[in-house]
């Protein structure tokens, strides 16, 4: 079979405060909180998932809000910029919306496309690009109509400490096609309509370090469990060290670190976020895996309360 990921499944980052993060990603960017759970390896920390109406693969940005975490440094070995895609014609809407909410943004160009670059309250770098491809989101919230809403990921900008090695992995293992080079970045593209465009720095970057305001890992899509197992073998056969497959409730996952220092995950599209909540009620309750359910009371006491709320521009 031909091995080729459709593109990004999700991106996971460190932040500090769940309310500030929810205000930004739901209140300003208009994404839907599709799952409120905990870090399965550290249940005193939330794991929050935001995306389109269903949390579809290719739309999911996830966060570990950890109030006591140190400040991270964006650099080599990380996703440097998360790219969100909006419908064609929606670029000016987002330029005006970010300005109305006091979010400083800068216009830039890359590979013939206009980008609007900005940062969240913790310093995570993001950008918006408008494209025709990809289905529109059906989610409307906080003054963001569905026809202007973020569709999902346009892709990501990878900051590699060994960009040639990262590029070979993307091409020869993950199945991306090299498109070209512009303004110091090399572009790779896959076949999916969302999360399918990846730009890698052409010159090696100095190492960053983890902490709030940085991305922890980027996950690529596997269509099902059978393909996922084949991906694990493929990664290992190409000299990388994949972890065993881990059950993350809403997808299965495996992890490996590539030569440029970036932590890669491969995640299955199914079963998705409606496996334990009705689609119309996603993200409304704290959902725990069964092995933590008996500790619900003590876990809830450790977590800061927060809510999804509509925001008023200028306040």
From TrEMBL:
PROSITE patterns: VOC. GO terms for molecular function: dioxygenase activity. It holds the Pfam family Glyoxalase. Keywords: Dioxygenase, Oxidoreductase. InterPro entries: Extradiol_RC_dioxygenase (IPR052537), Glyas_Bleomycin-R_OHBP_Dase (IPR029068), Glyas_Fos-R_dOase_dom (IPR004360), VOC_core (IPR037523). The keyword Cell inner membrane does not apply. This is Ring-cleaving dioxygenase. It comes from Paenibacillus nanensis. The lineage of its organism: Bacteria, Bacillati, Bacillota, Bacilli, Bacillales.
